[in-house]
């Protein structure tokens, strides 16, 4: 298992929710180990220039980036009969574009470091199955997963590793009022513990909690008419 202490970790989207909790947990581990340093860099992940500047600022301050967690994203309730083209494009930018904006400069940076590094992304089960009212969000997450899957194989010789996190429903402030059903929801503290463990173990894909992982696995192997029936019931308003 890789040690998560004594390394430079960039968390993109650390101001609230899962990212904030992961950052708190990582800082606590650092304090116990050797004392920690933390740089808070404001930036718009939708802007490629801003993303590159954030990566540069981290390297200028700490000399390298050992782990990057690309966590910025959002999955609002979106019904396909109400959503506009512009709204779908916006969700694509927020959940796929932000990954691209960071991925390109990070690959350059990590590829130039002797030990390479880890790029992790907070994906979602919605990227694996067609969840009603989450279609545009799920499509963006699926695109991000495919991009990272390809990059993992391509960039392994340069020491760059990739981990996609797939948390189930997490009780963050943002989702507390969205009205979507949330089976097997876990606290953001528990989600952060799973996430940090994944940053340490570096699996290609991390699914948590196991209950959601089992449900998603079942939905993926069931015949489509059966899985559609299961998904349709909680999605109906
Ligand atoms: N909550 C869940 O049930 C759940 C389940 C599976 C996956 N996820 C994924 O987990 C990640 C975090 O979700 P969360 O529930 O913790 O949401 P959250 O509390 O809304 O956190 C999202 C983070 O992303 C940042 N962010 C959003 N747009 C940004 C932008 N343009 N530039 C820079 N930062 C930006 C936010 O910062 P600002 O507010 O400062 O912009 C915030 O720090 C997302 O990728 C989400 O898709 C969530």
TrEMBL record:
| Species the sequence originates in | Streptomyces lincolnensis
Q: What is this protein called?
A: Oxidoreductase protein
What family does this chain come from, according to its entry?
Belongs to the short-chain dehydrogenases/reductases (SDR) family.
**Does the keyword NADP feature in the UniProt annotation?**
yes
Q: Which InterPro entries match?
A: NAD(P)-bd_dom_sf, Sc_DH/Rdtase_CS, SDR_fam
Signal sequence span per UniProt?
A: none
What PANTHER family does this protein map onto? DEHYDROGENASE_REDUCTASE SDR FAMILY PROTEIN 7-LIKE, RETINOL DEHYDROGENASE-RELATED
Keyword entries, A-Z:
NADP, Oxidoreductase
Q: Does the keyword Endoplasmic reticulum apply?
A: no
One example GO MF annotation:
oxidoreductase activity
């Amino acid at each position: 298992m890789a040690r998560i202490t004594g390394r430079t970790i960039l968390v993109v989207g650390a101001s609230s929710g899962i990212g904030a909790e992961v950052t708190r947990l990582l800082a606590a581990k650092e304090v116990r180990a050797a004392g920690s340093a933390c740089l808070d860099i404001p930036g718009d992940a939708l802007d490629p220039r801003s993303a590159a500047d954030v990566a540069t600022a981290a390297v200028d301050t700490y000399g390298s980036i050992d782990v990057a967690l690309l966590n910025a994203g959002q999955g609002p309730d979106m019904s396909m009969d109400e959503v506009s083209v512009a709204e779908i494009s916006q969700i694509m930018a927020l959940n796929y574009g932000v990954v691209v904006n960071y991925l390109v400069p990070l690959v350059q940076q990590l590829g130039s470091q002797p030990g390479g590094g880890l790029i992790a992304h907070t994906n979602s089960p919605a990227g694996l199955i067609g969840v009603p009212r989450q279609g545009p969000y799920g499509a963006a997450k699926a695109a991000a997963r495919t991009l990272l899957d390809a990059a993992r194989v391509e960039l392994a010789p340069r020491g760059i590793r990739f981990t996609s996190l797939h948390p189930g429903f997490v009780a963050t402030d943002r989702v507390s009022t969205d009205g979507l059903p949330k089976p097997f929801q876990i606290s953001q503290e528990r989600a952060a513990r799973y996430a940090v463990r994944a940053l340490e173990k570096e699996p290609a894909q991390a699914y948590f909690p196991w209950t959601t992982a089992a449900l998603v696995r079942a939905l993926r192997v069931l015949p489509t008419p059966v899985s559609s029936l299961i998904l349709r019931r909680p999605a109906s308003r």
